[in-house]
Amino acid sequence: MLIVVLLTVKFLTPLFEYTQNAILSSIIISAFIRLIDYDAAILIWKIDKLDFVACMGAFLGIVFKSVEIGLLIAVIISFAKILLQVTRPRTAILGKIPMTSVYKNLKQYLEAIKVTGVLIVRVNSANYFSNSSYSKEWILRWLIEEEDNLKANYEPRIQFLIVEMSLVTDIDTSGIHAFEELHKSLQKIDV
Questions:
Q1: Helices 49-64 and 38-47: crossing angle, nearest 10°?
Q2: pLDDT by residue (tens digit) across 109-119?
């Protein structure tokens, strides 16, 4: 019996050398697969594409490098998202909900209708030096597009532009100057 054990240890042990690694790997892989929450990733994709990019960046960084690298990638992407939101404020064209005095985003509320001769634009964030020219340019671009659409459909032109800023919490001098320039531009085209 001693000879059989010695021969097994001497000659058969190298055959089982990597068994521990294989068993440990299979345990880690099976636990790792249960850690991935596909439903949460799909929800993040539906809600915010940049958050999904940060999530996938963190995931891939952790899988292929280390936890620190994954977190660093997620932080950098999230910081870039914040900078993008600060420099590109959300704006929307509003329309009136029939039978009410409520005005809502035309893209979100399909039942909302445009008011004849009026373009209503909502600015959803503070207006600083970093985004004031962007807001002004978008408003003018929407006005020109609306005018072109109205001409194509032989409808009355826009006479008034209303900039709804109830969600704006702060505005600096650059923001004020941008709206003064917008006002001068509107006067030139008789709006």
A1: 140
A2: 889 888 888 88
**Single pTM value for the model:** 0.56
Q: In angstroms, rounded to a whole number, what is the distance separating the alpha carbons of residues 1 and 11? A: 15
Q: Which two tokens stand for residue 178?
A: 């941008």
What does DSSP assign to residue 88?
S
pLDDT tens by residue, 139-156: 888 888 888 887 787 878
Longest dimension (CA), the chain: 106
- Site of tokens 């636990």: 31
Average of per-residue pLDDT values in the chain: 83
- 165: tokens are 């800023």
Say how many CA atoms lie within 13 Å of 29 toward its Cβ.
6
Edge to edge, the sheet with strand 118-123 lists 103-105, 91-96, 118-123, 160-164
In whole angstroms, give the CA distance from residue 125 to residue 10.
74
Which residue, 161, 166, 167, is CA-closest to 179? 161
Could you tell me the domains of the chain? Answer: 18-86 (no CATH), 89-188 (3.30.750.24)
